[in-house]
Each structure stands twice: as structure tokens, then as C-alpha cells.
């Protein structure tokens, strides 16, 4: 049961939803989370909880990567031996996308990924580190990133060319901004923000 659900915000001009101060066991069903997060009339959203693990009967939802999964609940970890067929149909991640020490050169394997939702303020929505072959940070269809973390998205110690990929940085930031006022964050690429990447590119003569 909700212990605190605020439907308006006296300091914000618009409709706000805040769910907080509940039991540690409290979670929101996947269907409920989708309604809250995608309801156009909600201008501000704060969800201090988590999305419930889908039951065995839930169609196209999973907590372990598998072929045909559309809604992934939990932290999706991509490593050196990951089977990328398992993310071909993936559209929504309710947790973090963590890519570390993989052989990826780009993110084309996430060909259908539309949205990443991570509302735990202590966790990154996207954490990409140590992928020495990764030369592009562009997601083909990613539209929205919900993050309560002040950074939200981190790229570090990947291929050196990512330090100059300001276009991908700006694209990711746009996806974060489209998540609404819940996000005040900016993606970081090796300690650089998007504008700093542009400046670094000019200073080094990169196009």
C-alpha cells in the first residue's frame, strides 16, 4: 500500500507525482510504472522505489536476458561473452544498462531499445566502461532515459575516439531531457560533458 503519493507540487507549475517513504518491500507493477512514466499530463515524477519483478505469467518480460524479452526488469549487464541475440527485441529496461569489458564496437545490437528507467538515485542509468573497441555511443532508437542520479550516464575508459563523440553525447542528453524534470543530469564521457567534448575536439583539430 502507498504510504505517500503526492499528486501535486506547490512549488512546480504542473502535475507532479511523488511516491516515497514506503516499505522496503514496496514496488510498482510493470504496468503501473508504464502508466505513471508515460502519462503526458504528469510534468514531474519522483519514484523512490522500484519496479516489481515480473511474474512467470508476464509476457515478454524478464529478469534474466533471454530471446524475445521486451521488458527487462533489473540491471542488464553486458560483458565479454554476452549473447546479443537476447537483446534483439528489447525495448524497455527498468534498471541500469551496464556494459563493461565487452567486444562491442557500437550499440547497433540494441536495435529496438526505446527507454531506460533507473530511478534509484545511487545508480547510473547507463554505465559503459572498459570497452576498448567501442567507437560509437549512438543508440539506434533510444528515446528516453529516466534517471534520478546527478550524472545518470557514464562512459569511461572505452575507445579513445569516444572522447570526441559529442554528437552521441548530445543525443543521449536529449533523451535524458525528454524524461522530464525528474532528470537534472548530464552524461559524462571520460570526465567531459558534451560542450567540453566539443571544445576538446576543436582544440585537437578533430572533425
TrEMBL record:
InterPro entries tied to this protein: Rcpt_L-dom, Rcpt_L-dom_sf, SPS2_domain
Superkingdom as given in the UniProt entry: Eukaryota
Protein name: Protein CBG13830
Pfam family, one: Recep_L_domain
Annotated Gene3D superfamilies: Receptor L-domain
Receptor L-domain domain span: 68-161
